Amino acid sequence: MNADDDEAYILLLLSDGNLPTGSFVASSGLESHVKHGFSFPTQSTVAFLRDSLETYARSALPFVSDAQRVAEQVYRGESDAGVTLEEVVVNLTMLDEHYHAMTLNHVAKRASQAQGVALLTLYSKGFSRPKFILNSSGQAREARLNALMNAFKTLVRRGDAYGHLPICWGVLTAALGLSIGTSCFS
Fold it and tell me: What angle do CA 83, 163, 79 make, to 5 degrees?
């Protein structure tokens, strides 16, 4: 398998409906659209879905790419990037606060937070490797990955960060080594 195949495989895993990432947490207004009788003709629903996806992409993707770039700083190591874990966590928290302020709908905020927390949990339970199978070259990188995930997850649990989906998705995709183009536009 080459790197593109690895990325495609990871993205297929992440898109699986059986993962606890909250894919059915909110309808993003589709239920209201149908309930108020706007679902007929079918073209109306297709237009609603296209507009909803475009709006979400324009509002969330900049945060995903920024969070991924910030998180990658800690993965490279403090000596290479000149950035400490604490600085990375502060920057992620600021992005998270900006996304929270920009998201006006309280239902969308709750759904985004539930999905983000699910992604952080998914990494620790499904993608991080036990220490006893790490080789010496992978231990430092894996330790930095786990430290960032744990630090951010702790802030979310304490209520000091929101843990919105775009921020957590950017951190997760950086931890999994996915490229920004693949993680944002697939």
Answer: 10
pLDDT value of residue 161: 97
**118: nearest Cα among 42, 5, 22, 43:** 22
Distance separating alpha carbons of residues 144 and 89, to the nearest angstrom: 12
pLDDT at residue 48 tops 60: yes
Q: What is the mean pLDDT of residues 37-50?
A: 81
CA neighbor of 77 nearest in space, from 127, 32, 6, 140: 140
Residue 26 CA: distances (Å) to CA of 10, 93, 131: 24, 24, 37
d(CA 118, CA 98): 20
Picking from 186, 162, 173, the residue whose alpha carbon sits closest to that of residue 102 is 162
pLDDT digits (tens, 9 = 90+) for 95-104: 999 999 999 9
138 lies in a domain? Answer: yes
Q: How far apart are CA 172 and CA 122, in angstroms?
A: 9
Average per-residue pLDDT for the chain: 82
Q: Is position 27 within any domain?
A: no
Whether 31 is covered by a domain: the verdict is no
Full domain range(s) for residue 88:
60-185
